[in-house]
Amino acid sequence: MDIYKQIVNKIKEFDTIIIHRHQRPDPDAFGSQGGLATIIRDNFENKTVYEVGHNTPGLSWITENVEISDDEFENALIIVTDTANRPRVDDDRYNQGKFLIKIDHHPDDDHYGDISLVDTNASSSSEIITNLVIQTGLKLSKRAAEQLYAGIVGDTGRFMYDATTANTMRCVAVLMETHIDSASINRKLDDISLPVARLSAYVYENMKVTANDAAYIVLTNEILDQFDLGDAGTAAIVPLMGKISTVLCWTVFVEQKDGSYRLRIRSKAPIINELAKKYDGGGHPLASGAKIDDSQQIPEFVAELDEIAKNYKRGN
After folding, report:
1. Structure confidence at residue 99 (pLDDT)
2. Which residues of the chain have pLDDT under 50?
3. Are the beta carbons of 152 and 173 closer than 8 angstroms?
4. Where does the DHHA1 domain start and stop, copy by copy (predicted)?
5. Mapped to the 3 state alphabet, what secondary structure does the chain carry?
6. I need a surface site. Which of 32, 47, 67, 132 has the fewest CB within 10 A?
7. Which residue segments constitute the domains of the chain, with CATH numbers given?
8. How far apart (Å, rounded) are the C-alpha atoms in residues 35 and 91?
């Protein structure tokens, strides 16, 4: 029996299904979580389905999470979407259910779950769930298609990233056949607030570029306070430095309240996830995250990022 049928059979087996996703959710986290929840509700009307985690107001149009008691986890099927590592699961009660399923597209460095569906060739977890629908013949409603489409568009950067494949577009075609308003979803994902627009101008004005075309920007709490933005508000500016034609790879350093820094690392071609692993992180070859304890580590990291860019240029 293939893994898609195994997952559907487990869904049939349980009366209560609780779906988690990663902390600091992006469109794919919400799209895969919400899309799967909608699919289960549409196909199995007698199931009780919960989506748990902290809500993000700017993405509430994709889905919204709820608070539930510990009692709901007893004898429940738990599904975690779009979360490579257990420490990143939003709501650590994910391990209190009776059966656990992992659905993800990140490198499987932390293998967990009684069933683990990990497809690193997929653009997004929303693409994997769309494949689940296609492979098993589940009913796909317009609402579920909207959620999954938002997830795919978000994780492919409007289909600009290398992770976009022919299968990605086949999945998108299936979703669009439900008559979703794809243009409206695209606009919602492309919209930015006025504070983010002003922060974008700051990034372009103050970013640094190394000798080998690695770029970076350091956003301290003081800077973020000036723009009335916290860590979550910086997501929209992550792709900006990559729009510069000469930049090969780049990092956004975002200070946290405790003085540590969250690193959002991106690349057009040089592989950067091994560098991320050295700094308590990981992710995709061209899109990763990491953490450092304080600003004193920034020069060391930038030097290593520059070396990656240098080695790439030597090989090409």
Report:
1. 98
2. none
3. no
4. 237-310
5. CCHHHHHHHHHHHCCEEEEECECCCCHHHHHHHHHHHHHHHHHCCCCEEEECCCCCHHHCCCCCCCCCCHHHHCCCEEEEECCCCHHHECCHHHHHCCEEEEEECCCCCCCCCCEEEECCCCCCHHHHHHHHHHHHCCCCCHHHHHHHHHHHHHHHCCCCCCCCCHHHHHHHHHHHCCCCCHHHHHHHHHCCCHHHHHHHHHHHHHCEECCCCEEEEEECHHHHHHCCCCHHHHHHHCCHHHHCCCCCEEEEEEECCCCCEEEEEEECCCCCHHHHHHCCCEECCCEEEEEECCHHHHHHHHHHHHHHHHHHHHHC
6. 67
7. 3-190 (3.90.1640.10), 194-315 (3.10.310.30)
8. 19
pTM of the model: 0.91
Burial class for 110, CB neighbours closer than 10 Å (0-12, 13-18, 19+)? middle
- Asked whether the CA dihedral 202, 205, 208, 214 is positive or negative, the reply is positive
CA pair distance 282, 183, nearest whole angstrom: 33
Q: For residues 62 and 200, what is the distance between their CA atoms, to the nearest angstrom?
A: 24
pLDDT, residue 135, reads 96
- Minimal CA–CA distance to 287: which of 271, 309, 308? 271
pLDDT digits (tens, 9 = 90+) for 94-151: 999 999 999 999 999 899 999 999 999 999 999 999 999 999 999 999 999 999 999 9
pLDDT, residue 316, reads: 78
Task: Name the nearest CA neighbour of 82 among 129, 38, 49.
Answer: 129
Going from the C-alpha of 5 to that of each of 2, 48, 175, the distances in angstroms are 6, 20, 20
pLDDT tens by residue, 274-290: 999 999 998 889 999 99
**HSE-up of 230 (CA within 13 Å, CB side)?**
5
How far, CA to CA in Å, does 125 sit from each of 9, 129, 183, 315? 20, 6, 21, 32
Q: Which of 81, 78, 79 is nearest to 27 (CA)?
A: 81
